[in-house]
Amino acid sequence: MKTSLDIIVRPTEIDVNGHVNNAKYLEYLEWGREEWYEAGDLQYDVLKRLGVQTVTVNININYRKECGQGERLTIVTEPESMGRTSYVMAQRIYNEQHELCADAIVISVAMDVNSRKSRPVPEELRRLFPAPA
After folding, report:
1. What's the CA gap between 92 and 110, in Å, rounded?
2. Is residue 133, in this structure, part of any structural domain at all?
3. What whole-number distance in Å separates Cα of residue 122 and Cα of residue 20?
4. What is the CATH number of the domain that holds 65?
5. Which of 35, 65, 102, 121 has its Cβ near the most Cβ atoms within 10 Å?
6. pLDDT digits (tens, 9 = 90+) for 79-126
7. What angle do CA 35, 36, 41 make, to 5 degrees?
């Protein structure tokens, strides 16, 4: 399952260099992942009822093109691979000209809500990923 989220760069997201601050891109990616979970009917409360929370453990991001105030951006999120307790998502941020502004690989882990330790990814989340080749 692949999702797209459209946003507009706000004045508060601009740094002293006149472009989107690097930390804001991580926030944009988080918004994209939340959109993805919601599209898969796995909102936070649903995951919690399943006894699991998702924790981001690694983000590898490439900043490709600067973005400015008022620009319309699209955050594309799609599943890449699934392990036993962790999974990988690919995310990309495009501007209105369909130019790649940033791309990232995000690794998350399924965490048991009670023990606060990793646990197998629940089937409800696993089904949103492509079948292994």
Report:
1. 23
2. no
3. 36
4. 3.10.129.10
5. 102
6. 999 999 999 999 999 999 999 999 999 999 999 999 999 999 999 999
7. 95
70 located within any domain: yes
- Domain of 31 in residue numbering reads as 3-126
Catalytic residue annotation: 15
44-57 confidence digits (pLDDT tens): 999 999 999 999 99
62, two tokens: 């490439």
Task: Give alpha helix (H) positions in 19-91.
Answer: 22-39, 44-49
On whether the CB atoms of residues 36 and 42 are closer than 8 A, the answer is no
Number of domains comprising the chain: 1
Do residues 77 and 32 touch, judged by C-beta distance below 8 A? yes
Q: pTM of the full predicted structure?
A: 0.94
